[in-house]
Input
Amino acid sequence: MLLTWSTTDLLVLMENCRFFYGEQTIPFMHSYLDLQAYAQRRMGADMSQQMGLSRACEALGISEEGSDLHRALDDSLLTAQILMKVFEPASFEAAVSPANQEFYDRITFKTTIISDIDSPLIQRSELRFACENCGRNLKRTSEWKFRNRAFFAEFHCAGCGKDYTGRIQFKQKYEGIEIKKRLAERVKPEAEEASGQADPPKEAKEEP
Ligand SMILES: [Zn+2]
Output
């Protein structure tokens, strides 16, 4: 079983196996565990951020004294000490992956953001939004634009007259398409409303 602290080193090792042996897999690896992800979960840490080895040692009360960080042997020894602290048989076994084809497909899959609104991967029904106020289906009043890794379009509710900017992002992951949608009400400046002029298409901005 091979354990690494995050998958970065695993990918480098795979690259080396390709270069030196012409192999697409790591010949001596039968199963794998990303100890960083496992340790973070066991420590109840925020999974959206990767925890560095040093921080994990600190959090677990492991002394780094005498260790030379980013040296292969010392990093391995520290990682082993972390494993001893967080190890629990059932969760550990559940986190181990056999190094089969599915494992390599998953680990080498490049997550991409879909930037073509006509992509066959996008279901047309996903592009609809409902009014947050009255629940009606909104009518799209502009073309879709791709900006900041997401699509934007303007919408209007025929029921209550509200205007919205819809944002939608399609992320193609190994598991499938992940969709994030957000609707923001657009309030017209009073002057424009009074003059009754049609709004020029506004540039949708992504919220911070
Ligand atoms: Zn409405």
About this structure: The helical segments are 8-21, 35-43, 53-60, 72-86, 89-95, 101-108, 190-195. Strands lie at 2-4, 31-34, 97-98, 112-113, 139-140, 145-147, 150-156, 163-173, 176-186.
